[in-house]
Amino acid sequence: MVKLDLNNPVFQENLLTLQKPERLAAFDTLNKLRQMTWNQLYRDHGLKWEKITSIKPPSGIPAIYSLRITQVRRATAYRDGDFIRLLTIAHDHDSTYAKK
Q1: What is the pLDDT of residues 3-54, one digit of tens each?
Q2: How far is CA 61 from the centre of its chain?
Q3: pTM above the 0.85 mark?
Q4: How far is it, in rounded angstroms, from Cα 65 to Cα 31?
Q5: pLDDT, tens digit, for every residue of 22-36?
Q6: CB 17: neighbour CB atoms within 10 A?
Q7: DSSP conformational letter for 67
Q8: Which of 34, 87, 90, 99 has the fewest beta carbons closer than 10 A?
Q9: CB 18 within 8 A of CB 99
Q10: Which domain of life does the UniProt lineage start with (predicted)?
Q11: Strand, helix or coil at 17?
Q12: Residue 40 phi, psi (nearest 5)
């Protein structure tokens, strides 16, 4: 099963400042994630788990990925063993892939 790591302060700020409908949708997605296996996550067409090649990952992290967390927003994350370590929620879909 996928284990959630929601401890990144940037992710927490992004999540907690979403408008209520989007925040509830994000919580629904997080609940869905914690009930899935990694193979299910990779294959889920609604989540659209995608490797981000335009951003160089920090040292020690092999790759950064994005996934749909609400209808209009994507989150960034990486896999660390059984954990999905969530990093950010983009303000809009395109900013997920922008270089920093």
Answers
A1: 999 999 999 999 999 999 999 999 999 999 999 999 999 999 999 999 999 9
A2: 15
A3: yes
A4: 19
A5: 999 999 999 999 999
A6: 10
A7: E
A8: 99
A9: no
A10: Bacteria
A11: coil
A12: -65, -40
Q: Look up residue 87 and give its amino acid.
A: L
Instruction: Read off the DSSP letter of residue 46.
Output: T
Beta carbons within 8 Å of 80's beta carbon, 6+ residues apart: 5
Phi, psi of 82 (to 5 degrees): -80, -10
Are 62 and 18 a contacting pair, CB within 8 Å?
no
Query: Which CATH number describes the domain made up of 3-90?
Result: 3.30.2310.20
Helix (H, G, I), strand (E, B) or coil at 82: coil
Distance of CA 100 to the CA centre of its chain: 17
Residue ranges covered by each domain of the chain: 3-90
